[in-house]
């Protein structure tokens, strides 16, 4: 195996181990917080944390199970029995099983002197599903948990040590999941280079800086008006769900499970941008950014008219400028990234006499994650119509 390929495989293996470890650490931090809330008599807070954990876990298991059932028969090496897989997902261990399966496949490929194309493609197949599930877990559980913890801290006026652990792990985990998802998308298109260190750092930072004001806005609203935050989320979520439906998503294998995907995407859009359909991404991203900015501004006006201090004594005059500065800095880094650091160029196949060269038959026999392929072609631009690697599947232009 070439040294460069071995180094890349080792890096991906180490990142996979770190990802599983971060998932377990964050889960432990949430359970630790629940136990502390129960011991201090804050049963409502404990119930809310457990509810968010339960909803996110069930959604992850459903996604994982539907994808496993939709995968081609005989794809997964040494498959467990259907009953065993069903039991793992019923016990809320399906996502962890997928992570361990991905690590096992990655270790197998790294140990081989000359890994086969099938083993490499299968390792990519597993990692793409894991990346997508991690993104879903991030916005179904980590981001709402972070908002809840910040609201509790702002309302009480102090932060316990276990709350600081949850806040730090959540912020880092959210930005890392967005970066990991973006890097995973690039592997779906042959000519897309991986993100370099500088591009990865800027991408990580602008996601973190743009997410913080939104989370702060919702957390402040929750601390000031705890009885209305659920109504606020439901109202915006329905609007975003309608918008996702209008874009005609086609990600899941059947129409019924597609609504689960749309509901999850609407939850992601409540906090951050997520592209789901082909077309001009820039226009939709601008509309979404303006929508969230307007909503956050309306909440800020509500805070100012209701009073300048939170129940815990935290001045809004300090928090609001910090949120605005973070937004402007994140927006500037986002523009810098897409203007100068985004490694993007159209995919062009090898040509013979001016026409696309036919692919070998073995290429079509390799496992391809069509779910993530579809999302990647929605997000990244490609060349002319003749350069489309799979007929009938066009891509939007960024």
TrEMBL record:
InterPro entries: XK-rel, XK-related_scramblase. Keywords: Apoptosis, Cell membrane, Membrane, Transmembrane, Transmembrane helix. GO terms for cellular component: plasma membrane. It is a multi-pass membrane protein. GO terms for biological process: apoptotic process involved in development; engulfment of apoptotic cell; phosphatidylserine exposure on apoptotic cell surface. Its main location: membrane. Pfam families: XK-related. It is found in: Cell membrane; Membrane. It catalyses: a 1,2-diacyl-sn-glycero-3-phospho-L-serine(in) = a 1,2-diacyl-sn-glycero-3-phospho-L-serine(out). The chain crosses the membrane at residues 12-32, 44-68, 161-181, 201-221, 228-247, 259-277, 289-310, 316-337. Belongs to the XK family. This is XK-related protein. It comes from Pipistrellus kuhlii.
């Amino acid at each position: 195996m070439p040294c460069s390929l071995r180094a890349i495989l080792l890096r991906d293996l180490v990142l996979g181990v770190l990802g599983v470890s971060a998932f377990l650490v964050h889960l432990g931090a949430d359970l630790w917080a629940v136990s502390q809330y129960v011991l201090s008599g804050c049963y409502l807070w404990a119930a809310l944390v457990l509810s968010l954990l339960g909803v996110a876990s069930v959604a992850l298991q459903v996604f994982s199970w539907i994808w496993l059932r939709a995968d081609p028969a005989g794809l997964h090496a040494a498959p467990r029995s259907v009953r065993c897989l069903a039991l793992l997902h019923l016990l809320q261990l399906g996502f962890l099983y997928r992570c361990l399966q991905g690590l096992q496949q990655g270790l197998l490929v790294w140990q081989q002197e000359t890994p086969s194309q099938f083993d490499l493609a299968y390792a990519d197949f597993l990692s793409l599903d894991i990346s997508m599930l991690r993104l879903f877990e991030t916005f179904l559980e980590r981001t709402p948990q972070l908002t809840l913890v910040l609201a509790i801290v702002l309302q009480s006026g102090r932060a316990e040590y276990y709350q600081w652990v949850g806040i730090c792990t959540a912020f880092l985990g959210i930005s890392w999941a967005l970066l990991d998802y973006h890097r995973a998308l690039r592997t779906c298109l042959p000519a897309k280079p991986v993100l370099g260190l500088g591009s990865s750092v800027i991408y990580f930072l602008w996601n973190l800086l743009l997410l913080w004001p939104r989370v702060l806005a919702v957390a402040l609203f929750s601390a000031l008006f705890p009885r209305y935050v659920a109504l606020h989320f439901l109202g915006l979520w329905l609007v975003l769900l309608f918008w996702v439906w209008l874009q005609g998503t086609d990600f899941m294998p059947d129409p019924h499970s597609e609504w689960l995907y749309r509901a999850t995407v609407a939850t992601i859009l409540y906090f951050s941008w997520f592209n789901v359909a082909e077309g001009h991404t820039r226009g939709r991203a601008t509309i979404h950014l303006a929508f969230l900015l307007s909503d956050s501004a309306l909440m800020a006006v509500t805070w100012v008219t209701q009073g300048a201090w939170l129940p815990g004594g935290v001045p809004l005059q300090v928090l609001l400028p910090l949120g605005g500065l973070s937004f402007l800095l994140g927006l500037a880094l986002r523009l810098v990234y897409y203007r100068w650091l985004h490694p993007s160029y159209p995919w062009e196949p090898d040509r013979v006499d001016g026409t696309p060269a036919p692919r070998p038959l073995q290429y079509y026999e390799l496992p391809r994650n069509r779910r993530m392929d579809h999302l990647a072609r929605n997000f990244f631009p490609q060349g002319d119509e003749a350069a489309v690697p799979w007929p009938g599947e066009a891509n939007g232009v960024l």
